[in-house]
Design a protein that fits this description.
Layout: E1 2-7, H1 18-21, H2 26-48, E2 53-58, E3 75-78, E4 97-101, E5 122-127, E6 130-131, H3 134-144, E7 149-155, H4 156-165, E8 170-179, E9 182-185, H5 188-202, E10 216-222, H6 225-231, E11 238-241, E12 244-249, H7 252-269
Parallel strand pairs: 1-2, 1-4, 2-3, 4-7, 7-8
Antiparallel strand pairs: 5-6, 5-10, 8-9, 10-12, 11-12
Bound molecules: zinc ion.
Length: 275
C-alpha cells in the first residue's frame, strides 16, 4: 500500500497569518517544525494502518518547507518546485491513496488564509460550475487516476469543504477559523495524536480503482480586469467576462496544467499595490 501525502502549509497546526507561511521569516522557521510534526503524525498513522510506502510531496509556496532531518525515517520527501503535477506530483505513480495535509479553503471563501494558488488576486475558481478549492481541484485529479482521498487536515471550514468533494475521507480540524487571520488552535500535542488516529483509520479506504479521464471546464474570477486579459492570452483560454476567464480541457490533468499557466501569467501581470 503506497500512499502520497500532499503537504500544504496554511492548514498546518497553529498557522494563522502571512508570516507563518512566507519563507525566510522567523515565524515560518517556527511553523516549519509544526508542519513537519503534522506530517510525521500522519506518516505514523498511515504505517500503523497498513501503508508500506509513504511519499510526502511538498505543496506550499516554493515547496521547501518541511524539515527532512526531522522526518519519520520510514517516509520519503519530494522537495522543491517545477513539478508537472505540482501539489499532486506522484499521484500518477500507482499510489493507493492520497492525504491532503495542511490544506485550506478556496479563494473568496471564509477560512484561515483562504486562497487558490495565488495568495490574493483570484476571487473564485469554479470547476464545472462549482466553486473549487485546491482540495476540490486536486481531488478531481486524484479521481482521474483512480486514487481515493483518504484524509484532509486543516481548519474546520477546510474540513467542511472536504465533505463536499471527498465525503468518505477522514477529516481533522486542527483549528477553528475565527477570521482569515485568526483561529482557535489546538496545540501539536493534541493535533498529532488526532491526525495519527485519523490516518490509521483512513487506511481502510486505501486502494486504487479505475481512473477515467473526462473533459472539465474551469473558470477563474480575478479582482482586476488586466489579470483576466493577461490570462486570456493563453491558448484555449477565453475571456468570459471582464474579470473572468474560462477554458475547457480534455482531462483534469490537462486542466491543472492549464491552471498552472493561467495563474503564472496572471501573477506576472500583478503590478504593485494596485494589484
Ligand atoms: Zn495551498
Amino acid at each position: 500500500m503506497r500512499i502520497l501525502i500532499s503537504a500544504d502549509m496554511e492548514g498546518a497546526t497553529g498557522v494563522t497569518c502571512t508570516a507563518d507561511v512566507v519563507p525566510q521569516t522567523e515565524q515560518w522557521q517556527r511553523f516549519r517544525r509544526m508542519l513537519t510534526a503534522d506530517v510525521n503524525a500522519c506518516v505514523a498513522g498511515l504505517f500503523d494502518g497498513g501503508a508500506t510506502d509513504v511519499l510526502v510531496n511538498e505543496a506550499h509556496s516554493a515547496q521547501r518547507n518541511a524539515l527532512l532531518e526531522d522526518l519519520d525515517p520510514r517516509a520519503r520527501m519530494l522537495t522543491g518546485r517545477h513539478k508537472p503535477l505540482s501539489m499532486m506530483q506522484g499521484v500518477d505513480s500507482g499510489v493507493d491513496g492520497v492525504v491532503f495535509l495542511g490544506y485550506h479553503t478556496g479563494a473568496g471563501a471564509e477560512g484561515v488564509l483562504a486562497h487558490t494558488y495565488l495568495e490574493n488576486s483570484i476571487t473564485e475558481v469554479r470547476l464545472d460550475g462549482v466553486a473549487a478549492s485546491e482540495g476540490r481541484l486536486n481531488a478531481a485529479l486524484a479521481a482521474e487516476h483512480g486514487v481515493p482521498v483518504l484524509l484532509v487536515t486543516g481548519d474546520d471550514l477546510t474540513c467542511a469543504d472536504a465533505g463536499g468533494y471527498a465525503p468518505r475521507a477522514g477529516r481533522v480540524a486542527v483549528k477553528e477559523c475565527v477570521s482569515r487571520y485568526a483561529a482557535v488552535c489546538k496545540p501539536p500535542a493534541v493535533t498529532g495524536p488526532e491526525i495519527a488516529a485519523a490516518a490509521r483509520a483512513a487506511m481502510t479506504h486505501a486502494g486504487r480503482g479505475h481512473g477515467d479521464a473526462a473533459a472539465h471546464t474551469v473558470e477563474v474570477d480575478f479582482d482586476a480586469t488586466h489579470l483576466a486579459a493577461a490570462a486570456a492570452l493563453v491558448p484555449t483560454v477565453e475571456l468570459a467576462a471582464p474579470r473572468t476567464v474560462r477554458y475547457t480541457a480534455e482531462s483534469m490533468t490537462a486542466a491543472m496544467a492549464a491552471f498552472k499557466v493561467v495563474t503564472a501569467i496572471a501573477a506576472g501581470a500583478i503590478d504593485g499595490i494596485y494589484g
